[in-house]
Specification:
Elements: E1 11-14, H1 24-51, H2 58-75, H3 78-87, E2 91-93, H4 94-127, H5 132-135, H6 138-164, E3 172-174, H7 181-185, H8 193-226, H9 231-263, H10 268-293, H11 295-310
Parallel strand pairs: 1-3
Antiparallel strand pairs: 1-2
Length: about 325
């Protein structure tokens, strides 16, 4: 095939994390363990929030949505990688690759929006406590989550449709464990200038925009906390933000690593390492951060797990 002529291929080959056969069982076991911890940890957060009426507040409504998004985010990449290792196959069809890209971008952007909404919730709770329940009413909370879903879906759909217009040579290998947009664009034999322009513009906009909103919210929060006269009051106010701040630093820190490694000269190892931290480690750690630093979540988890443990079998007479 001539270099200038492309074709719509039917499949890609995912090279995975390592080509060494002796490492495949170790990689499989490690990532299966992390995936199960991620799913069950975030699922426990959702169940604890839904089962405790004291946690039916805007803050924990957004937290349960974040946990759901984290489960979906990890599920877009890890199960396929585990199946490929188990079957010793590197194949992913063209349609599956585009689908994986769409959902990966959808949940990555949605994660960013949910974290921004959570920062706004903390801003209202600390800076306008007397009007908190009026401002953060159920209608507004639902609307914020709905708008986040719509905007994330729109951005992901735009990027995916633009990839559909590209042509590729046959037998292409992706040096990654999933179909990452930048890696796929580099394999195209069509002109990808517009795709790259849109990709980096949206990445910058959707990275800087929500982060700016989070930073603005916390600048106001810090000002309000400094105005609290008692040290105990300051600690109590800041403690409600500590878990969210930890998750924000983790999410944007690893996300920045992925962005910089993709923009830098090709280094497949650094890109894969940053992506593992972003797509696997961050969603896995979020439940631990919230359960260890939040007394309400710890109490709800203890009540939920205790009730499940002591609930005997039902006997029908």
């Amino acid at each position: 095939m001539e270099p200038g002529n492309g074709t719509q291929i039917s499949q890609f080959l995912l090279l995975g994390l390592s080509q060494a056969l002796e490492l495949q069982p170790l990689i499989f076991g490690l990532f299966l363990s992390m995936y199960l911890v991620t799913v069950f940890g975030n699922l426990l957060i959702i169940l604890a929030v839904s089962s405790d009426s004291h946690l039916h507040t805007p803050m924990y409504f957004f937290l349960s949505n974040l946990s759901l998004v984290d489960i979906c985010f990890t599920s877009t990449t890890i199960p396929k990688m585990l199946v490929n290792i188990q079957t010793q196959s590197k194949v992913i069809t063209y349609a599956d690759c585009i689908t994986q890209m769409y959902f990966y971008m959808l949940f990555a952007v949605l994660d960013s929006f949910i974290l921004t909404v959570m920062a706004y919730d903390r801003f209202v709770a600390i800076c306008h406590p007397l009007h908190y329940m009026v401002i953060m009413n159920p209608q507004l909370c639902g609307l914020l989550v709905l708008v986040s879903w719509i905007m994330s879906s729109t951005v992901s759909l735009l990027e995916s449709l633009m990839v559909l217009g590209l042509h590729f040579r046959s037998d292409l290998e992706i040096p990654h464990f999933f179909c990452e947009l930048n890696q796929v664009l580099q394999l195209a034999c069509s002109d990808t200038f517009l795709n790259n322009l849109v990709m980096y513009f949206t990445a910058g906009l959707l990275g800087v925009g929500p982060l700016a909103g989070i930073l603005y919210s916390y600048s106001k929060i810090i000002s309000s906390i400094y105005g609290i006269p008692s040290a105990q009051g300051k600690y109590k106010a800041f403690s409600t933000c500590a878990s969210h701040l930890s998750v924000v630093f983790l999410f944007y820190g690893t996300g920045l690593g992925v962005y910089l490694s993709s923009a830098a000269p090709q280094n497949a190892h650094s890109i894969v390492t940053a992506s593992v931290m972003y797509t696997v480690v961050t969603p896995m750690l979020n439940p631990f951060i919230y359960s260890l630093r939040n007394n309400d979540i710890k109490r709800a988890l203890q009540m939920f797990l205790g009730r499940e443990a002591f609930q005997g079998p039902t006997v029908l007479v």
